[in-house]
Every structure is written in C-alpha cells, then in structure tokens.
Design goal:
Organism: Brevibacillus antibioticus
Structural class: mainly alpha
Strand content: under 5%
Helix content: 55-70%
Family: Belongs to the heme-copper respiratory oxidase family.
Number of helices: 20
Shape: globular
Domain Cytochrome oxidase subunit I profile: 40-558
CATH topology: Cytochrome C Oxidase, Chain A
Protein name: Quinol oxidase polypeptide I
CATH superfamily: Cytochrome c oxidase-like, subunit I domain
InterPro entries: Cyt_c_oxase-like_su1_dom, Cyt_c_oxase-like_su1_sf, Cyt_C_Oxase_1
Number of domains: 1
Bound molecules: protoporphyrin IX containing FE, copper (II) ion
C-alpha cells in the first residue's frame, strides 16, 4: 500500500530538480500567505462580491492585466534561464531536456497567457469607454471568457510541478508531440490548457465584434470610431476565423494521443505536415491578432501627443482590414522547406511581401501625424516613437525571411528568433506597454511616475537591442534555434554573452516598472481631471477611474475625435455644458456561474490529462449543470437610481445639474 502511494507520488509530482522544489515551496507558502491575509482582514466576501463574480468590463480588464503581468514574470524567468544556459559555450546549467521544456513553456506562456490577456485587458477596459457604452454586449459571457482563460493558464502552469512540462515547442509539432515519442502528461497539459483558454478567446472575439457593431453611442458611426476600436474590430474578426482552427487541430491531436487516432502519424496513413499546416493557419493570423491592437494604440497616442488629428484615417481603417484578411493567406511561409514546390512557395512569398504594403502605410501615417505637430514626449509617446524604428527593422527582416529560396538558409536559425522577437516585443509587448502607460490614469485613477517610467523605457530598449541584434548575426553564422549548447570552436561566445547581458537588462527594466507602480501608489497623485493628456476620444470625457456605469448620460457624438471637438466648442463659448436629464441606468447583475463553471472545466481538463474519468465526467456534468442553472436564471439585471448616479458623480467631483 505505502509502496504504491510512493510510486504514484513520484510520478505525479515532478521531482529531482532544486528549481522545482523551490517552486513547490514558494507555491505552498504564497497560498498560505494569501489565505491568511484574506482571512485575517475578513476580505473573502469582498473578494467574491467585488471581483470573482463581477461582470463589470473594467474589473475584468484589470484582472486580465494582473494575470498577464504575473505571466510576464514567469515567461521572463524562463527566458533568463535559457539565456543563462547560452551565455557561454559548454555551459552545464540546464540539461537538454530541461531546455526543451523551458523554450516550450516560455513560448506558450508569452503568446497565449501573456500577450493575449494583456491585449484582452486593454480591450475590456477601454473599448466600451471609447464607444460611449455602459458595458460590452454580453457581460456574463465576458466574465466566462476571463475565467476560462484563467483556468487554462493555471492548468498549463501546473505542469511545472505536477506531471511534467510539455517539451515539443510552442506549437507542439508531431511526430514529437504524439504519444509514441512523448508519453508523459506534459503534452496533454499543453492541449487542455490551450483548449480551455482558447474557447474563452473565441468568445471574447465574438463579444467585441457584437459590442463594436451594436453598442455604440448615438451618432458614433463606424467611420467616426476611434482607431483603437477599429483595430480591436479587425483583430476580433481574425480571432473568430482563426481560433476554431486551433480548437479543431488540438482536438485531432488529442484524438491521436488519447484514442489512438492516426491523423498526424505516418503509420496508419496520417501526415504530420497536415498538423503543421493547420496549426499555422491559426498561428500566423494569431500574430496579427495581437499586433493589430498595438497599431490601434500607436494611432491614438500619436494623435494625442502630436495635438493633431490622425493622418489618413480612412487608409488606416483600410490597411487594418486588409492585414486581417491577408494574414489568412500566408501561413506556409513558416515552412517553405516542406517541399511543396516552387509555385506554392512563390504564392506564399508574394502574399507575405504584400502585407508589408498596408503596414508601411500605417508607419507613414504615424510619421505624417507627427509632422508639424506640437509633440510632447510623455512616457506613452516615448514608447510609441521608440517602437517605430524597432518595428521597421523587424518588418524588414520579415521581408527577408519571406524570400522563399533564401529562407532555406534562415529557416530555424537565430535569425528567425531575432526577427520574431523583434516584431513581437517591439511591436506587441512595447505597444501594449504604451497603451498601459497611456490609459493607466483612466484605469486606476492615478498617474504613474514619469521619471521612473523613462528609466524603464530606456532599460527595456537598450536591453532589447543588446539581446536581439547579435542574434541576427549568430543566425547567419549558423547557430540554430532550440540549441541548448555549443562548442568553443564555433566563435559564437562573445555575441551570446552580449545577448544574455541584454536579457538581464530587460529583466531589470521589468523590475523598474514594478517599482514605478509601487512608488506611484505610495505617492498617490490622483488624476482629478479625467483627461490628463488632453486627449481626443470619449473615454477621457468621464472621471478617472470611470464610475461603474461609465457614462452618467449617453454622449451624443457628432464628429471624429468627438471629445476634442467638444472641448474646442466649449472653449470658444459655442457650447455650454448642457443641462441634463438623468435617468435610471440598466445594469447587469454579478454572477458566480462563470468562475464555478471554469473550475469544472479545470477538472475536465485535469481528469483527461491523467486519464481519470472519475474526475473528468463529474467535471463535465458540472459544466452542463452550470449552463442549465444560467439558462433558468432570470434575475440578471437591475437599475441604478438617479440618486445614486448623482451621489457617485459628486464624489468624482462632477456636478450634474
Ligand atoms: C523579454 C525578453 C525575452 C527574451 C530574453 C526571450 C528569449 C528567448 C529565448 C532564449 C528563446 C529560445 C530560443 C531557442 O532556443 O530557440 C525564446 C523563444 C521564444 N520566445 Fe522569447 N524571449 C523574450 C520575450 C518573448 C516574448 C515577449 C514573446 C511573445 C510574446 C516570446 C515568444 C517566444 C516564442 C514563441 C519562442 C519560441 C519557442 C519555441 O521555439 O517553441 N518571447 N525566447
Ligand atoms: Cu507567419
């Protein structure tokens, strides 16, 4: 009996590595700490009522952002571990197996559990405010999306201490991700972690398309809509078409692994290249899904800090839609070496190069917006201006990679690693940082310290160039990706050393950002204006942070950059702050079902990973029960009284007459 318990435990828990034991201890300690703090301060009820059951888009957005910062930390630690192993030839810090696990979890976490939720966080906090709406179209669904993402992320992260991490790369190519070569539970953690959170992403896509098309303030026609909302729309259209492909692909891989299918195995008539085609039919649109909103953010910031209308509004909209369509026609550029022949490769090379045109249009539009503007360089603008050259280099190396015959040389080399980090860090992550600095006062109601913010900016950028520029050269010198060790004879030492130093500087930059937040909380400088940057769009017309109903009165929109125009009219005495008639506001009620249902999904996933049907089946019944319970719940909304609106507005310093 005791023996079998011991045997089970040694397979169930990951053992043998001091890093893991350290993680075990810190997980247990932080759980104890969190539970004791909540109990001591009697905060359980508050946590449940205000956060865990909320359907308020702003709070959901904040939870997304918080989760993504935690994941940035984990993904960043992974990155530093890898760079430590590569710092010099013949390092003995990580074993080959361990290195494989780390680049896999790093890639998955950074893209699916860091970039995606950071983006969804910004969608959530900002889009309804920009549209003059009271919430998203489906607030309950929105909460469910968040909790599904959260369950999926927790499931994936659990593989670090239970069962073992996946190690087949961030896209889990077969045959290596198939059962025959990868029998442990790591790959199943991968499938279920991504599957569960992916359903959440799909629902977010649907939710925001409907919100943008259907829930805009009166007068806000599509062609008057702020550019960030346009970018969200184009990104969500791509989500709705791309994510079902991911769901199906992973389902097929699951059938291969769990039921002995042969979709992607050569024996039995399957074909691994089929998986690789399918996963990139999702994977390439995915990178545009995360970069398009960053383009929207740059557009907002450039206009605000140049004190000018965005140059080329229509061409921006057009470019964004074209990018989201074209992103579905380029997937094979990830495997020009597959052997599909010159015609196929030529097609995908040309479509890839075509994307450079709308992207170039956008870059020129930003530059023309700045031209003759009264530019000021507060942190959001600093990030935006810093990103432009960075992103242009990333884009141009992308064009180099798209030349199919040349790609036979670049393929799977460090040239590629440098390229995709350049677009994904300088385009996506820095873009979301810019958005976070820009909207921070609106989200949290206080200003971030500008001086510390500048330090973070410079450290991130210097660290970035030091880390990734040498990798282009290393790639051309023959260093291949996913390589965990190399010899002294290669001549790669110096550049790898520089690269690791750059990574450490980025790590320091992250800490400076956390310090910036802590410092700013301590020296609380409240944003009493609601419009600290003198900005142009509707979200800045209400107090910071926005009251829970967002707009006390529905704004009547008459032009692009409506808030800017309204400020001008008031200044010129053409418009008096209007007398308004307050009406009770219709709001959705909180619900505990999303978090409970996602917990059941977690059990479904965990049960299937370990082939414990006694857990998976009840989990699934729980999911169905939650659906039924929600269907019969008619108590889903309420009205805020005029009195309460008046009181809330007065507390935010706004008098309503
Ligand atoms: C912040 C600094 C970062 C550093 C120092 C870093 C470093 C690395 C390293 C060393 C690798 C492994 C390369 C190899 O051995 O082939 C890697 C792979 C990867 N990184 Fe990063 N990374 C960073 C940020 C990011 C971010 C922000 C993302 C995405 C949002 C990202 C996405 C990926 C992906 C998808 C892979 C490929 C994993 C695979 O080969 O399966 N990285 N990174
Ligand atoms: Cu691609």
């Amino acid at each position: 009996m005791w023996e079998s318990v011991k045997e089970f435990a040694s397979e169930f828990f990951v053992t043998g590595d001091p890093l893991i034991y350290g993680a075990d201890v810190s997980i247990v300690l932080s759980m104890i700490a969190i539970v004791s703090v909540l109990t001591y301060f009697k905060k359980w009820g508050w946590l449940w009522r205000e956060w865990l059951t909320t359907v308020d888009h702003k709070k959901i957005g904040i939870m997304y952002i918080l989760a993504s910062v935690l994941m940035l930390f984990r993904g960043g630690v992974d990155a530093l571990l890898m760079r430590a192993q590569l710092v010099m030839p013949e390092m003995q810090f990580l074993s080959g197996d361990h290195y494989n696990q780390i680049f896999t979890t790093h890639g998955v976490i950074m893209i699916l559990f860091m970039a995606m939720p950071l983006m969804f966080g910004l969608f959530n906090v900002i889009v309804p405010l920009q549209l003059g709406a009271r919430d998203v179209a489906f607030p309950f669904l929105n909460a469910l999306s968040f909790w599904l993402f959260f369950s999926g992320a927790m499931l994936f992260n659990l593989s670090f201490v239970i069962g073992g991490s996946p190690d087949a790369g961030w896209l889990a190519y077969p045959p290596y991700s198939e059962l025959a070569f990868n029998p442990g539970p790591g790959q199943d953690f991968y499938i279920w972690g991504i599957q569960i959170s992916g359903i959440g992403s799909l629902m977010t896509g649907i939710n925001f398309i409907v919100t943008i098309l259907k829930v805009r303030a009166p007068g806000l026609t599509l062609m008057k809509m702020p550019m960030f909302s346009w970018s969200v729309l184009s990104s969500c259209i791509a989500i709705v078409f791309a994510f079902p492909i991911l769901t199906v692909t992973l389902a097929l891989l699951f059938i291969d692994r769990y039921l002995g299918g042969h979709f992607f195995t050569l024996d039995g008539g399957g074909n691994p290249m089929m998986y690789i085609n399918l996963i990139w039919m999702w994977g390439h649109p995915e990178v545009y899904i995360i970069v398009l909103p960053a383009f929207g953010i740059f557009s907002e910031i450039v206009a605000t800090f140049s004190r000018k209308k965005l140059f080329g509004y229509k061409s921006m909209v057009f470019a964004m839609i074209i990018i989201s369509v074209l992103s579905f026609l380029v997937w094979a550029h990830h495997f020009f070496t597959m052997g599909s022949g010159a015609d196929v490769n030529a097609f995908f090379a040309v479509t890839t190069m075509l994307i450079a045109i709308p992207t170039g249009v956008k870059v020129f539009n930003w530059l023309f917006t700045m031209f003759r503007g009264k530019i000021t360089f507060e942190t959001p603008m600093l990030w935006t201006v810093g990103i432009i050259p960075n992103f242009v280099i990333g884009g141009m190396t992308g064009v180099l990679l798209s030349v199919a015959p040349a790609d036979f040389q670049y393929h799977n080399s460090y040239f590629l690693v440098a390229h995709f980090h350049q677009v994904i860090i300088a385009g996506v992550v820095f873009g979301f940082f810019a958005g976070l600095y820009y909207w921070w006062p609106k989200i949290f109601g206080f200003m971030l310290n500008e001086r510390i913010g500048r330090w973070a900016f410079w450290l991130w950028n210097i660290g970035f160039y030091l880390c990734f520029m040498p990798q282009y050269a290393l790639g051309l010198m023959g260093m291949t990706r996913r390589l965990y060790t190399y010899g002294w004879d290669k001549g790669w030492f110096e550049m790898n050393l520089v690269s690791t130093i750059g990574a450490v500087i980025m790590g320091a930059a992250f800490l400076v950002q956390i310090w910036d937040i802590a410092h700013s909380i301590k020296h609380m400088k409240k944003d009493t204006t609601g419009d600290p940057w003198n900005a142009r769009t509707l979200e800045w017309s209400i107090p910071s942070p926005a009251p829970f109903y967002n707009f006390a009165v529905m704004p009547q929109v008459t032009s692009q950059d409506d808030w800017h125009e309204r400020k001008l009219r008031i200044e010129q005495g053409l418009e008096k702050p209007a007398k308004v008639e307050l009406e009770p506001i219709h709001m959705p009620k909180n619900s505990g079902i999303p978090i409970v249902m996602s917990m059941f999904w977690f059990f479904v996933g965990f049960g299937l990973i370990f082939d414990w049907l006694w857990m998976a089946v009840p989990g699934f019944i729980g999911v169905l029960a939650c659906m039924v319970a929600h269907s019969f719940n008619y108590d889903t909304d309420y009205y805020i009284t005029v009195e309460e609106i008046k009181r809330t507005e007065a507390e935010a310093g706004r008098v309503i007459t």
